[in-house]
Amino acid sequence: MPRRLIDARFSSEDDHFHDECGVFGVFRNAGASALTALGLHALQHRGQEAAGIVSCDRGSFRIERHMGLVGDNFTSQDVIARLRGDCAIGHNRYSTTGEPALHNVQPLFAETAMGGFAVAHNGNITNARKVREALRSSGSIFQSTSDTEVLIHLLATSAKATFIERFVDAIRQLEGAFALVAMTAQMMIGCRDALGIRPLVIGDYEGSFVFASETCALDIIGARFVRDVEPGELVIVSDRGLESLRPFPDRPDRFCVFEYVYFARPDSTVGGRNVYDVRKAIGRELAREAPALADVVVPVPDSGTPAAIGFAEGSNLPFDLGIIRNHYVGRTFIEPSDQIRHMGVKLKHNANRNILAGKRVALVDDSIVRGTTSLKIVEMVREAGAAEVHMRIASPPTTDSCFYGVDTPEKSKLIAARMSVEELARYIRVDSLAYLSIDGLYRAAGADGRDAVAPRYCDACFTGEYPTPLTDREMHEPHAQLSFLEKA
Ligand code: SF4
């Protein structure tokens, strides 16, 4: 029988929505490329497939793009020395659109009639295929299959006079989610889509402007947080300082609520809220909505940990590390024999028997996607002697796919779209299972609950209500049942 290969970093045993991408940029600092490498390292959780940096040295651009981790590709003096210049932008990629290949690694770069232009994108353009087909039929030749490349072609073919007018003309034709950091020889641009679905912040490092997906990337270089790039805002930094444009009609924000549940690092502040605080508040809400008769609260580490701390606080139960995570993953293993059960999950997690044996365990995880990991984790906890297992999930059931730059399975593979909570509890073999309500999630994230007419966040993976048109999806899968509710 062929032996199974398990990649500890990317295997289906890791049953989460996969993070999207991280972007970073430094304008006018002698150490721009080294700072960008550090910033990308802090954003590694947003994408581990590939990383790239483009620098600008008095109008001359240098490009380094590699498959793999930042730490494996951007730590040598040689690489940083090649990336000369006092401006740089960088990107961590987890492919959501376009296959995982070097030609899709960002930042993308092109020589346009207006000079060199580099761009790094977090998000997903939901009409990219339609725009691409139109551009192709009028003669454009594409170098990649990345959705981001349409922006470059729209910019290059725009009839507007100035670079900024062309940039605005281009982004107005895009639908979906985009947090962009772009660079020319004269300026750096940070820009968010009209709804601000993905995060982007501005920092100050010794007088130099910095853009980053999350504040943890400012912290690593010692930069000061200045403010968010606002939803629908285009921020231009140049030798004249910072200018702000509002190229889109004003609409209420729809920041991705899953950033608070799972994507963003807990030490970051995104959308004006500290992620760790929101996750603990989620746990307290969950304890209020769905208390468990348990002896100990145990997180599924690492992503379930802050919510489990909040759950323990909210239910006055002890918190303990009943599952230990091995952080030294990153290799592909050959499963040595069928006798080693659940090897995939055990590469990352192991039960801490002393904590679990004989106890009624409230097990807290951030979400259930396919259900594969939950099933195995619960079995591991039971094998370690737990008397009862009560699973508590720190988000509502994940019933719909994300089309805004997060790698998610098809709806049919999302277990909560196929099973009721009771069925799922039987499937993963827990004594009880409860999810946080959507109102509870909104309360934890600072709202009064979900306003059904004008929800404050994007929550489409929990509600199926998409805040933008899904043009490509509707064109190519017209029978897919998707609802775009333009309530905003
Ligand atoms: Fe975030 Fe879910 Fe909306 Fe995607 S669908 S942007 S993961 S809330």
* Rg estimate, integer Å: 23 Å
Number-wise, the strands total 27
**Ligand names:** iron/sulfur cluster
In the CATH scheme, what's the topology name of the largest domain? Glutamine Phosphoribosylpyrophosphate, subunit 1, domain 1
Helix % is 25-40%
Low-pLDDT stretches are 6-13, 484-488
The CATH class of the largest domain is identified as Alpha Beta
- Biggest sheet character: 7 strands, antiparallel
CATH superfamily assignment of the largest domain? Aminohydrolase, N-terminal nucleophile (Ntn) domain
Distance between the termini: 55 Å
Number of domains: 2
Mean pLDDT: 91
Number of helices: 18
**Bulk shape:** globular
Brief overview:
This protein is α+β, with helices and mostly antiparallel strands.
Description:
By secondary structure, the chain is α+β, with helices and mostly antiparallel strands. The chain has 2 domains: 4-256, 4-Layer Sandwich (Glutamine Phosphoribosylpyrophosphate, subunit 1, domain 1), CATH 3.60.20; 276-454 and 468-476, Rossmann fold, CATH 3.40.50.2020. It has 18 helices and 27 strands. It has a 7-stranded antiparallel beta sheet. A 6-stranded antiparallel beta sheet has the order 6-7-8-9-13-14. Strands 18-22-23-24 form a 4-stranded parallel beta sheet, sandwiched between helices. Helix 18 (471-476) links the parallel strand 26 and strand 27 (483-484). Helix 9 (275-289) packs across helix 10 (305-315). The model is unreliable at 6-13 and 484-488 (pLDDT under 50). Bound molecules: iron/sulfur cluster (SF4). The site of iron/sulfur cluster has 11 residues, from helix 17. The site of iron/sulfur cluster (SF4) has 11 residues, from helix 17.
